[in-house]
């Protein structure tokens, strides 16, 4: 079989990763005198990597991030109360695999959104489905769903992602209905899903080190109580 025929077959079968790496793999195999098995391994790995990258790209697009930060970009030389150990814990995604919710607490501009979206991007790269939204977007969609009679469908949609990030929570007091809607959502997600909230300091919380984000790992029951506080 000629090289042209092989490439056409790869294109017809949508083996685009293998197609992209074909000529270089052939050249490397010829130079290094590798076996056919090693050549096949190289091409299959190229196809697997290509498909994984595409899946990750789809997950990132579906997540609707507003930033593309990475944990590696965090500056630990700045004065912060957040530690490398805490970032390592977030990066490990143990909390996500254990379906634990996370609170990122701090004043505006200290990096809560950056850290939350960095965690979300990393989760996408690890095969997790993610949805990011501001609390304003959530409330607008919630009101629209209730007015159009699609509330249950919207709640079911939010129950599906492995991770939901709700940014700027607590910017305004929730109505009793909104607080109840949030509690129902958290109840549905508490068994096998995680939720990340970014928020300014909780009412009554200590205000030392206010220039840095704080990370709080909560049990789901504790987070439901937290949501009810914004209905008071």
Q: What is the chain-wise order of helices and strands?
A: HHHHHEHEHHEHEEH
- The structural domain count equals 2
User: What is the β-strand count?
Assistant: 5
Major sheet: 5 strands, mixed
CATH class of the largest domain: Alpha Beta
Q: Tally the helices.
A: 10
The span between the termini is 74 Å
Strand content: 5-15%
Helix content: 55-70%
Q: Structural class of the secondary structure composition?
A: alpha/beta
- Whole-number radius of gyration? 23 Å
Mean pLDDT: 83
CATH third-level topology of the largest domain: Rossmann fold
CATH superfamily of the largest domain: P-loop containing nucleotide triphosphate hydrolases
- CATH A-level architecture of the largest domain: 3-Layer(aba) Sandwich
- Spatial order of strands in the largest sheet: 2-3-4-1-5
Which spans have pLDDT < 50 for at least 5 consecutive residues?
204-214, 217-232
- Could you say which overall geometry the principal axes of the C-alpha atoms support? elongated
Structural overview:
This protein is α/β, with parallel strands linked by helices. The protein has two domains: 3-62, no CATH class; 71-229, Rossmann fold, CATH 3.40.50. It is 55% helix and 11% strand. It is built from ten helices and five strands; from the N terminus they run αααααβαβααβαββα. The protein has helices spanning 3-12, 16-32, 36-63, 84-92, 94-97, 112-125, 135-147, 151-159, 176-189, 220-229; strands at residues 102-105, 130-134, 163-169, 194-199, 214-217. The protein has a five-stranded mixed sheet. β3 (163-169), α9 and β4 form a beta-alpha-beta unit. The longest helix has 28 residues, at 36-63. It is elongated. Mean pLDDT is 83; it is low at 204-214 and 217-232.
